[in-house]
Amino acid sequence: MKTFSVMLVDDEILTLSNLKKALEKEGYEIILAESGEKALDLLESSRPHLILLDLVLPGISGLEVLKKVKETDREIIVIMMSAYEILEKAVEAMKLGAYDYLLKPFKLSELKATVQRALETLSLRLRFLDEFEKQKQRYYFGKIVAQSRKMKEVLDMAARVAQSDRTTVLLQGESGTGKELLARAIHYHSPRAEKPIVAINCAAIPENLLESELFGYEAGAFTDARKRKIGLLEKADEGTVFFDEIGDMSLALQAKILRVLEDGTFVRLGGSQPIKVNIRVMAATNRDLVKETEKGNFRQDLFYRLNVVPITIPPLRERKEDIIPLVLFFMEEFNREIKRNFKGLEPEAAQALLNYSWPGNVRELRNTVERVMSLYQSENIQLQFLPQEIRQELNLPEDKVMSALTGNWPTLENLEKAYIARVLEHTGNNKSQAARILGLNPATLYRKIKSWKK
Ligand SMILES: Nc1ncnc2c1ncn2[C@@H]1O[C@H](COP(=O)(O)OP(=O)(O)O)[C@@H](O)[C@H]1O
Ligand SMILES: [Mg+2]
User: Ligand 1 pocket: which of 145, 177, 181 to mutate (most atoms <8 Å of CB)?
Assistant: First the structure.
């Protein structure tokens, strides 16, 4: 159990010693101050969890002390002690951020109950702050690996849009590119950081359930609706709603969401009262929403509503510079988690990872690192630790090239072209790397590529 510290501020020495005795019995650590000046002085060197503060003090008044305390640290709980004659002052203190007040004379049992209740609230608050701090650390922009220029641009854009707290953000990119990670990072860097972020995976929840999850319902809205349920949109009030896989949302639900985006209101299922919420909306999808609107699968008006600040995260194969930094990043994570001592990669392993096309993007890469590290104990990741499909990419076997060319026997020139194109694809168009794989001098490779373009 945590020991809470309580500061008592009163100019009557007898009151101070009585309160001290009573609260010490409860196991609190007590700090005494016989004036407002003394209290503020002590605050320079100690931070109590709670202050019991007399309103009427000889020097600077209780209200002044309260103001100063709240300026110093607004998490400190202040309970005012006041005589009935100056009840108005106590009310004013509440407005200035006091937690509660005790009317003198009060019983010690009353004091104890009030202090205990306040500290329970504080415990909850501290737990929240602790969890919040963890989340914030976890989704810190600095922890998102971005070595490539493309990814740096994405992070830069995300950092800027985080500041404007009502702006809708649409994250597009293949599965596993880091859309959800980025959405959470934006939230935790936004002015809404201390408010909830509610994530809804539109692809994973069946349509009718999704609707009641989002909007909530009134008792009797349908057979199983015994009592009112508050929906996710209401839970996210003042915070952020993240619609993941929004491209998979049904057209009917899209229409309802559009209304929420337009005027911030909705009604619970079976209800009639419109409810207004203040939410920031972010959405993510691995579909091409422009194409989906052309096909009639996605409402154009909703698309425009969402597409205020579009951020597209490129697939990993288009930002190969991120591959090795990501491997090292995850290596550190799993060294800690599964007690390993990996330090790096053998050059062939690195080459194979660079050549592979990563259809599952960062998620696949992370899983690969985890798998290798849990199966092997070594200083470096070696080529033979890697799964077959990744190892293969180091040397393209001939039959693979041949099978890529269907139909007639290709001419030698066409075969060469196809093979080189294939290798280039695997190096993310990195020509010097491709030249190394092909055993060509880079200048020769450049010349060949140039000659095709004529
Ligand atoms: N740039 C990055 N740096 C660190 N980890 C990343 C990065 N991109 C993605 N990840 C990690 O990869 C996994 C997949 O990311 P996620 O955000 O779920 O992708 P998506 O939502 O696009 O499918 C998560 O574990 C995420 O933390
Ligand atoms: Mg996702």
Answer: 181
